[in-house]
Amino acid sequence: MKKPLVILFAMMSAVMLLAIACGSDEADPNATATPAPPATVPAGDRAPEPTAAPTAVPATKAPAPVGGGDSATLDINVKGDALQFSVADMFATAGSEVSVTFTNSSSVNSHNWALVENGTKDAVAADGTGAGPGNNWLPVDDSRVIGNTMVLSPGQSDTATFTAPAAGTYQFVCTFPGHNFTMFGGFIVN
Ligand SMILES: [Cu+2]
Q: Ligand 1: distance of its center to the CA of 166 in Å?
């Protein structure tokens, strides 16, 4: 009777050990096996794509710097026969090549368009009056004048081309004698 009991205990303990072992085995695989596959599979699938992408990116970045110099075309007119420009402010980007086309649609007045340092429009116009119509009513080789059109008779147009100066506020003005007091605006460089 003793031997069968020992065997029975041995069998019972073996079953318990199996149950414990199986119980712990079932808990571990569920915890570790499930997260593992998703983490490895996508990594393997995505691996080839990043390798191809870096090759294509430098190719697209290369053309961009080629067109580095900005350019802008601005149009401005007058308000009929009034001594006023058609716009109050104009805008440009520092260092860009700017073309300002000024059309004088007045039927009676002559005008010009000049870009000058901020706060100098009246002084430049006064000196322009001294320079006379032969110089487009503008002082010659004056550092305050950044760009300008010719003096335009009614119906004419002309384009002033210049490099936009450093960021800041400047003025545009008509320097035909007497016009500078009402015929001007702000030129903002960003
Ligand atoms: Cu004018």
A: 26
**Average pLDDT, stretch 137-149?**
98
Superfamily of domain 71-189: Cupredoxins -  blue copper proteins (2.60.40.420)
Q: How far is the CA of 83 from the centre of ligand 1 (A)?
A: 6
Closest CA to 157 of 188, 118, 111: 111
**pLDDT on residue 91:** 98
The domain segmentation of the chain, as residue ranges, is: 2-65, 71-189
| Distance from the alpha carbon of residue 62 to the mean position of ligand 1, in angstroms | 47
Residues 126, 81: Cα–Cα separation, whole Å: 22
Residues above pLDDT 70, as percent of the chain = 64
Indicate the pTM of the whole model. 0.65
Q: What is the mean pLDDT of residues 84-98?
A: 98
Q: State in Å: Cα 123 to ligand 1 middle.
A: 15
Ligand 1 is an ion; residues with CB less than 5 A from it: 111, 174, 176, 179, 183
Q: Which residues contact 178 (CB under 8 A, 6 or more apart)?
A: 83
Q: Do the strands 145-148 and 71-76 form a parallel or antiparallel pair, or are they unpaired? A: unpaired
